[in-house]
Amino acid sequence: MSRLRLCLASLLLVGACHAGTTTSTFTHTVRAVPPAHPQIELDRAALRAKLAERRAVVVERFVAYRDLGVYPIEHTLGPGAQHVWIDDAGHLCAVATLIAHDWDRAAVVRAGAKDRQMRMADVTSGPLADWMLTSGLTRAEIVAIQAPTIGDGGGIIDDGFIDPRGMEVVRLQAMYLDVERQLRGLWDESLDLATDALIARSPDLARALLAGRPAGPGSFAKPAST
Predict the structure, then answer these.
(1) Which of 52, 85, 91, 159 is the least crowded, having the fewest Cβ atoms under 10 Å away?
(2) What is the pLDDT of residues 53-63, one digit of tens each?
């Protein structure tokens, strides 16, 4: 094939790639993943398959949480929407509930003991960050799942007709429904991003997952009895 034809073929291929680009509500930050060191080479296909299993389980748990409609709604929240890891009634947020399935409820409560308005968007290290990396979801998806809530106005019912807490449940369920659609619509793309993120951030964590050991609670585990 002539050099001219090769150039034309390359241009057509680039154009086709750009034409197939999709957009979403999730804001994915895509960074170039450096080549793996020969001593820490991983089977990417096997890791992606393991993360696909994790993703399927986590998404189904999220759907079950959404359908149950029992969300943390704090009486004392100020104006605007805020994150609530666990409310006064003991209701966990969506992400805390998903993590509790893998750890246990007590460990998740301990994780949020110092900050009941903890945001996963701010977590960059430790057991919670490890859980994110081994969940099969991207960081952007997890942030979207942890939707902030609006206070119920102290539980006041306006003239006996409007229940602010009930209205907030309806609002969150609608939001969660949209998040689920995006989770399923971006399935393959997100799996690729999650796989590359895990390999880049923690090859040891990736190996543990391949061996059937997802990220545990670490320092949030039940203290040893004395």
Answers:
(1) 159
(2) 999 999 999 99
